[in-house]
Amino acid sequence: MAGDAAGVDVDTVMAELHGRVRERLRGQLVEAGSEAFADPTVFADVEGVMRAAVSTPEHARLILPELLGEPDTWRLTTKMAYRSHRGTGAASLILFVKQRVLMPLLRWMYEYSRDNFERQRRINHVLFACVQELALETALLRREVRRLSGAVPRSTASPMSSGPASGPDTQSDSPQSR
Amino acid sequence: MKLAFVVQRYGAEIAGGSEGHCRELAERLSGRHDITVLTTCARDYVTWENAFPPGRTVEHGVPVLRFPVARPRRMKVFADLSDEVFEGGASHERQEEWFRENGPETPELVEYLRAHGHEFDLVVFWTFRYYQSYFGLPVVANRAVLVPTAEDDAAINLDVLPPFFDKPAGYMFLTPEEEQLVSGRAYRPLLPSMVVGSGLEPVSTAGMTRAPLEALGIPQNYLLYLGRVDRNKGCDALLENFQEYASSRPDVALVLAGPAKMQIPSNPRILALGYVSNEVREALLAHARALVVPSWYESLSIVLLEAWNHGIPALVNGRCKVLAGQVRRANGGLYYMFPAEFDEAADFLLNRPAERDAMGRQGLAYVDREYRWPTVLSRVETLLQDVRRRSTPRLQNVGS
Question: Residue B162 in contact with residue B188, Cβ under 8 Å?
Fold first, then answer.
């Protein structure tokens, strides 16, 4: 539907703007010493992976958090929990003092750190998504390497799939090594 | 048809988007249908304190039945409970408790629906997140139409929602993105449903001079933000982006028109006007280079439609799917996701007058095509008739 009005096409303009922003960033990275980004296609591939990770919805299910186990042991929590290990009577009194006396005093400080917790939680989510994207890319590449290794005679296969220059993971996953 | 419209607040002075949508439809459809509005006595959407007298009134020709709010919102309890349930893993009971604490808790309204809901052909509910919809809709589910006004925020991911979204007999959405969002949280295709949008009256900008703006010292070259200046609306990021942007472009200003709910940095390029008269508001819209909408969460941005209605383009937060979708469908502006994109997009809109004007015209054409009241009302009528037709056999079965 984006192109159904005459005149200026938003998608075209946005593509130009994105192109300029990306090109400027790539230039800055090269200047800073990341020479691999001198190749625009490398930059585009890397940016694609990162962008996919950043675009992961806030509540999307990811593999790494599942593998980390019980969320209470690793997840940042912004919830205020009032607990006491004492008996019922003493516990009620302590909880009352915590909730009604101490917390009003401390709450404004908590509000400040809560914002930072929220930011860190978002970054963690994006990093989890990045790791997952990279793992996915690796898995797909391994599959492709295996497929090529199977299709191409060993003598003409690329070093990456069968030769000594390939990494240990790639080597162990190639059909020839099994 | 005999219709009940259920909404959290109601009245000409109530500024909320979903409340305004409900009132506009009630007033515009009341000539064709027998409509009763069922609402609460609250005026303030934060505290829900009773402000209107309970009982029946007639407002602009529409009968309104108000029910008292059992208790004001307990802010601290609600904040702590929100933290708990949005973190994930909270029990269904705690999540239901969230809807109760979110309020406005009006058990008498739910009881009224239980006793009299069957007297209406259809009962239309606005906004899924409030008490009256969450607890009232299941009581009349077989004749209920939901206008979710859903945003892509934490509440939409609550586990109790898929079964809730399974209940209504029909749906009205404000944008295709909202439809997609809610459909993704339901067990079944949400049929019958329709993206109805909201309507606007045409405005004439021909005679609108800059005189009201000159008096306020508003420069020629300005970006406009309209609405509450609030972190929840993305204004903190906007102010940061703009200050960085303006530091190397001395001829541009950002005009903020709306009540400030956050500290606004002292910067001669940022002009915070607070509440403005309608005359100033219209002049600001008519003469802005572009409207900026930095919000992350929207179900439909009325102010964006208003900008297009005045023929000016928009610069919106691309992380909000609704805003980016509206801009792309209209070809009516640009979007950004981070500061470098904000700079590029703002430069384009400020320095390319021909393209800017074309985008403004395209936005106006989009509003003419999709958001005029006759078009919107026709969609609403079609949807209501469809739901009524489909639900009649079900209602007969229930009665037999």
Answer: no
